[in-house]
């Protein structure tokens, strides 16, 4: 199973995960374009997912900051 290909996936909240490349994605998830062994995918997620807050929280925080 170590050689099984995975895809990096993300949802509309900007959250990332890995998913077996040969499986249909759950509703609300999209492939990011990176595919490889699971550990490579996890390394990629670590590089690209730098702000772990959901997109809706980031937007609300930004909006609140603009009111000050």
Automatic annotation (TrEMBL):
Q: Where is the composition biased (Basic and acidic residues)?
A: 1-13
CC terms in the record's Gene Ontology section: cytosol
Check the record and name the SUPFAM superfamilies matching this protein. MbtH-like
Q: Where would I find the MbtH-like domain in this sequence?
A: 1-47
Q: Name one GO biological process term.
A: siderophore biosynthetic process
Where do the record's region annotations for Disordered lie? 1-23
Q: Which domain of life is it from?
A: Bacteria
One Pfam entry name: MbtH
List the InterPro entries. MbtH-like_dom, MbtH-like_sf, MLP_fam
Write down the PANTHER family for this protein, in alphabetical order. Answer: ENTEROBACTIN BIOSYNTHESIS PROTEIN YBDZ
The name on file for this protein is MbtH protein
Q: What is the species of this protein?
A: Actinocatenispora thailandica
Q: Which gene encodes it?
A: mbtH
């Amino acid at each position: 199973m170590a050689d099984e290909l995975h895809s990096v996936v993300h949802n509309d909240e900007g959250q990332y995960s890995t998913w077996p490349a040969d499986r249909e994605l759950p509703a609300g998830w999209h492939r990011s374009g990176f595919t490889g062994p699971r550990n490579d995918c996890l390394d990629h997620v670590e590089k690209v997912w730098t702000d772990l807050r959901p997109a809706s929280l980031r937007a609300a925080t930004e909006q609140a900051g603009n009111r000050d």
